[in-house]
Amino acid sequence: MSSNELASSALKVQRAADALGLKIEVRQMEASTRTAEEAAAACGVTVGQIVKSLVFVGAESSTPYLLLVAGNNRVNEKAMAAHLGEKLRRPDADAVRSVTGYAIGGIPPFGHDQPLATYMDQDLLGYDIVWAAAGTPRAVFSSAPAALRDATKAQVVRVT
Length: 160
Ligand code: 5CA
Fold this sequence. Notes:
Blueprint: H1 8-20, E1 27-28, H2 36-43, E2 50-58, E3 64-70, H3 77-84, E4 88-89, H4 93-100, E5 117-121, E6 130-133, E7 139-143, H5 145-152, E8 155-157
Parallel strand pairs: 2-6, 3-5, 5-8
Antiparallel strand pairs: 1-7, 2-3, 2-4, 6-7
The structure holds 5'-O-(N-(L-cysteinyl)-sulfamoyl)adenosine.
């Protein structure tokens, strides 16, 4: 595959960005970007600048919640549960794929098969540029965090 020929899942993310008016360019890396650490190394940035797109499910409502989390942060599930008004559980990999339309390691922050209630880690807004997955474990894009927040209509929260 040539560098300007995107895998179908990466192309789906590029098209979703275009439709949202978010000016990004999906890039396919030579190295794996499957984990936040690998993505940071491949992109030449700190782990905190990598956006993890994590799916949680409300224990009572079964609502899927998408949390955009700085790569160096761990979600405090109790604090998020208090914020959302219900306990959270982590769906398994198959459920994540069916909710988002993408496999773990490539889940993008937008462009999912269904609209997802989205929350953004406030720490991401402390960076000029952040990098997120773009559909596959090698595809990424960079964005100003505020532009990503606006495109995803994310509510900014403290996740830690
Ligand atoms: N491409 C990288 C950087 S953007 C990426 O997607 N990172 S990630 O953190 O958003 O995606 C990996 C995350 O998926 C892990 O942090 C972990 O929380 C979650 N995960 C890994 N395996 C499973 C699994 N079997 N079931 C549910 N969640 C999982």
